[in-house]
Amino acid sequence: MRYPLFLEADMNQILPGHNGTTGYTSNHPPKHIIDLDRYPIDQPDHPDTRRLVNRLRGELDDVGCAVIPEFIRPDSLARMLSEAGRLMDKTHWTRESHNPYFSGDDSSLPATHPRRIFGDRYSGFIDSDILEDTSDLRAVYDWDGLTQFVSACLGVAPLYCWADPLGRNPYGIMEDGSCFPWHFDGNEFTVSILVQAAEEGGTFEYVPDLRNPGDEKFGEVGDVLKGNRQRVRTLDLRPGDLQLFKGRFSLHRVTEVTGARKRIIALPCYSKDPMYVNRPEHSKQVYGRALPIHYERQACRPDTLSD
Asked: How far lies 207's CA from each of 23, 36, 285, in Å?
């Protein structure tokens, strides 16, 4: 199986904390996870797949975001929800303030500069390196076919599973009172799979392509942080939906969650650079720790952005 756009690359490098024993190979589609009857992405030349790729590529170009409804089968969603429940006590919860770049305050800048505007965050992550060996999330992420499909939709090749051992495919957790303020992602491309919606709130808001690798556009970022909603878009995902998103370049947030039911979302991440990982400070703020790889590779950056 090969998408015409995709260039051959090793997508299944075994990272620290991951023994690779998912039971899948590059030519073994996880049919019990993805609804391949409705979305035959294991067949790149299938007319339905070609139409889907063209639609998603167009939406990504237009608004920086695209959604495939009910991409994950209900039984697989139930298994992901069960796994998240078993690992819930290992969630790294954060209550802190941060700017959109997860960097420290810089008193040399004006008080109105985006790097000096901090928002309160309360949310958690189940880090990628503690997912179970039988995890559906781990299995679908390790399947080369999904990486190739995402590559075709983004128009980017080669594309790699993200090398960051903590952030490559975690579960994001939000409970009553949780919120995630405006920020940019450390990785270039994120695939989100909503596992469970909150009772209320938890709406995804974003400003597409607000910056680019050569221009931070601090002025426009500052406008959004100060309340300008002219370019803000909203997205209400449903369980099983798959979202493709250019999170490094699009400012985004998740609104406050209310109610007893947690919002749980799976976050497979991808990068154009097979060496790139989060900076240590970013990793500590989001995932609760930094590993030796974060220090060893902190100079390996895909661009010159603040993060």
From this structure: 39, 31, 23
